[in-house]
Amino acid sequence: MGGSNRPSMAAELEGCLLRDSDPFPYFMLMAFEAPAGLLRFAALLLLWPLLRLLRSAGKLEAAMNVMVFTAIAGVRAAEVEAAAGAVLPKFFMENVDMEAWGVYGRWRGRRVVVTAMPRVMAERFAKEHLRADEVVGRELEVRWKGIAVGWLKRGEGSAAELLKQFVGPNGRLDAGLARSPTAEFMVLCKVTTSA
What is the value of pTM for the model shown? Predict the structure, then answer.
């Protein structure tokens, strides 16, 4: 975690390490793998126009909340983790941006992946295939008997706030890689690169 003297690089998963910035296909897979999968899959498909509208209006957080609720509500957290680890890596691998991966893969310090998806959906892929040391993303709200209630924990803060645990003694990360130089966590990085 924080306090390491190793130089750190943070890279955005959606739209940078992965070519596509839209996590919708991955939520479709998660919905299909969940209990009542066909119903969840159909509901998410019916919600697609609303999700596109929310994304085009800049309401990315609202779109994410709708996808999380539809695909994951009522599923045990352990099942979400198992499905994410078994199903998503193959589809993530097909979408890897090799140019961005080349920059990220050559980094010799600590590698951190930043995701807009729930952390549990991206963590296994990022650590096993992208060789990330850490994955920063929002956590699922889990309640009674380990069941995901269908929303992300509130009050965790932005990606930039979550990344602060990895900053060096100068209060900054050494490098950042994102699809846009205005990505919120890039303000914490000494050197920034857009993919």
Answer: 0.86
